[in-house]
Amino acid sequence: MAQGSAKIRIAHAEPIGQGARLLRVERVDGAELGFAGGQYVIINSGVTLPGGKLAKRAYSMLSSDAEQRAVEIAVKRIGAGPASNVLNDIAVGAELEWSGPWGKLRLPPGFSGRALVIATDTGITAALGIARSAAAAGAAQLDLLWLVEEGDYFVPEAFVRERLPAAARLTVAGGFLPVGHPERPARACALVGDHVADGPRDAVLCAGDGAVIYPIRDRLASLGAPEGSVLLESFFNNPLKKSL
After folding, report:
1. At what angle do helices 210-222 and 184-195 cross, to 10 degrees?
2. Hey, CA dihedral for 234, 101, 43, 5, is it positive or negative?
3. Spatial distance between the Cα atoms of 76 and 155, rounded to a whole number of angstroms
4. Under DSSP, is residue 18 helix (H, G, I), strand (E, B) or coil?
5. Contact 40/48 with Cβ under 8 angstroms?
6. Count of CB atoms within 10 A of residue 113's CB?
7. What pLDDT shows up at residue 227?
8. How far apart are CA 231 and CA 146, in angstroms?
9. Is 117 helix (H, G, I), strand (E, B) or coil?
10. What is the DSSP string of 9-28?
11. What is the DSSP letter of 111?
12. For residue 175, what are the CA distances in angstroms to 146, 192, 215?
């Protein structure tokens, strides 16, 4: 799997939802990207921050890894955030630097078992990449649970459903508690418990709010999930970073 820095080109761009943009990007040199569904890349916006560092941000690839020449990413405009604003305004044909792919949130090659993908908030991008790639690989069962505050948050539900393969079953827990709510982890664990009432999955992959997905992992372990079968990728509120 290729890793390192490379130049990318914006091949296509379109608005999605409220204050978000879908970008299709490709390497300038035409090489394959070498990614697996669920992984992310780090894009250099070219903006220098007040402290002198460049504004670089991670974005999950939401397209299937069956296509390696170009990928889709979704970018939510976040206030005055330098990277999100650059990517929401950048012109088709423009070039930027990126590095990657990175991340261990991925199913093993040739996975054919029963998988559950859980996303909170913006973690839906990684979940889409995993689900689309798993379906292409022939997973026996694929369920996707999305915990989200509002239906138009980041990307619309219709956008997600349009890109999911027919074999995937999507459950949207709309009206979910907001980030930082003290009851958010417990509510998420209850929803996940109901979702696996018919037995543990061969693999569970979780992306999004670290304050939620780590308790979910513990809950699944208490319900009999095999050791090492639950993988996590914190988009924010990573408890491991806070403990350093």
Report:
1. 40
2. positive
3. 8
4. coil
5. no
6. 15
7. 82
8. 16
9. strand
10. EEEEEEEETTTEEEEEEEET
11. -
12. 11, 16, 20
pLDDT score, position 92: 98
Q: Which residues in the chain land under pLDDT 70?
A: 1-4, 151, 242-244
Q: Tokens 């204050």 sit at which residue?
A: 19
Tell me the domains of the chain and their CATH numbers: 5-102 (2.40.30.10), 114-242 (3.40.50.80)
Query: 24 to each of 93, 150, 172, 234, how far by Cα in Å?
Result: 11, 25, 25, 24
Entry pTM? 0.90
* Residue 118: both structure tokens together: 């859980």
C-beta pairs of 44-49 under 8 Å, 24+ apart in sequence: 44/96, 44/97, 44/98, 44/99, 45/82, 45/83, 45/86, 45/87, 45/96, 46/86, 46/96, 46/97, 47/82, 47/83, 47/86, 49/82
Sign of CA dihedral 31, 35, 37, 43: negative
